[in-house]
Specification:
This protein is an all-alpha fold. It is built from four helices and no strands.
Length: 129
């Protein structure tokens, strides 16, 4: 696969992941679970982590579109971050609350988890070039 096509695809997958993450913000549109049982610092820290992951994805995607080779390593780290976040939520590791996972959130997280796996493969392939 051509290097510039691979960086473009990698950037597109990072934007895709960030856009999938936006409606999944805890306590908002799709994730309607009650997080009041979590300590405030945990809830805020989790939101900061999710926000940072999304913002970093947009930044790295911009550099990927500029055909910067280093973005493959950053994309791999971000993709693995998405895998950890979604797998932890789907696996009921963190955050653990009484409310069940809403069906819409379950579907989006499963899609985002699979997509993050594809993004990781693209990043690994790019690092091999």
């Amino acid at each position: 696969m051509d290097h510039s096509l691979l960086t473009t695809l990698t950037g597109a997958f990072l934007v895709w992941e960030a856009l999938l993450l936006i409606p999944m913000v805890p306590g908002k549109l799709i994730d309607t679970r009650d997080f009041s049982a979590l300590p405030r610092w945990q809830f805020n820290g989790f939101n900061v982590c999710l926000t940072s992951l999304g913002l970093a994805s947009f930044v790295v995607a911009g550099f990927a579109m500029a055909d910067q080779h280093w973005t493959f390593a950053a994309a791999l780290v971000l993709s693995l971050g998405y895998v950890v976040v979604f797998a932890a939520d789907l696996g009921a590791v963190f955050p653990v609350v009484r409310d069940p996972l809403p069906v819409q959130l379950l579907v989006l997280e499963a899609l985002a988890l699979a997509s993050a796996g594809v993004g990781a493969v693209l990043a690994i392939q790019g690092m091999r070039l």
